[in-house]
Amino acid sequence: MRVGRLTKAHGLKGALKVELYTDEPEHRFTPGSTFTLQVPTGSKWRGKTLELIELRWYNSQPVAFFVGIGDRNEAETLVKAILWVEQDPNDLPAEEDAWYDHQLVGLAVHRDGVSVGTVARVDHFPAQDLLIVKTADGEVMVPFVKAIVPTVDVAAGIVTVTPPTGLFEELPESDEDQAPAIAVPESAAAAEDEPTT
């Protein structure tokens, strides 16, 4: 399960700022926690893990210290790395109406009882999370809010959506788009052709 991303080096002692993908940092980021790294193919960290020394907060921003990362130069080599942890697929979040990303990916997305696609991934942003739904016409970004995603039934494998018109289909052209050009009255056109004196 993805729990964070290392965004930039912090200070000179090897600390890194973390973008959290978990609502439970106090459980996921405890001293001794080990993370599998997702990094580019050419990175020296590919296939390796990181052990957390401590997670601190500076100006409401989480900052992590890891074993073996002792200076800024070494920390810079980990920027943009994604942190993963082992997760029992049967575990559920303690919070009601909350799900882990891996529980949502692959679920069928239904609108008015009809399948419109499947959840390809979940994107996390400061303002809100987005369900990225793979459809026959490409990917659709669905705000993961109660008004648009009223129910998630992991057991049935279905996410029900009630999206606004236009989210899953192209809107028809409006009357304004189809309105004909305004015709110029003949008298006006004739007046324009008359020479001035």
What is the name of the CATH topology of the largest domain? Elongation Factor Tu (Ef-tu), domain 3
Count of distinct structural domains: 2
Mean pLDDT: 82
Strand percent estimate: 35-45%
The total beta strand count reads 12
Order of helices and strands: EEHEEEHEHEEEEEEHH
Q: Radius of gyration, Cα only, in angstroms?
A: 26 Å
Range of helix content: 10-25%
Q: Tell me about the biggest sheet? A: 6 strands, antiparallel, barrel
Note the gap between the termini: 84 Å
Describe this structure in words.
The chain has 2 domains: 83 residues, Beta Barrel (Elongation Factor Tu (Ef-tu), domain 3), CATH 2.40.30.60; 64 residues, Roll (SH3 type barrels). A 6-stranded antiparallel beta barrel has the order 1-2-5-4-3-6. It has 5 helices and 12 strands. It is mostly beta strands and 197 residues long. A hairpin with a 2-residue loop joins strand 7 and strand 8. The radius of gyration is 26 Å and the shape is elongated. The C terminus is likely disordered.
Keywords:
mainly beta, Elongation Factor Tu (Ef-tu), domain 3, SH3 type barrels, 2 domains, 6-stranded antiparallel beta barrel, 6-stranded mixed sheet, disordered C terminus
What is the secondary structure topology, with strand pairs?
Layout: E1 2-10, E2 15-20, H1 25-28, E3 34-38, E4 49-58, E5 61-66, H2 72-76, E6 82-84, H3 101-104, E7 108-111, E8 114-124, E9 129-135, E10 138-143, E11 151-153, E12 158-160, H4 175-178, H5 186-193
Parallel strand pairs: 7-12
Antiparallel strand pairs: 1-2, 1-6, 2-5, 3-4, 3-6, 4-5, 7-8, 8-9, 9-10, 11-12
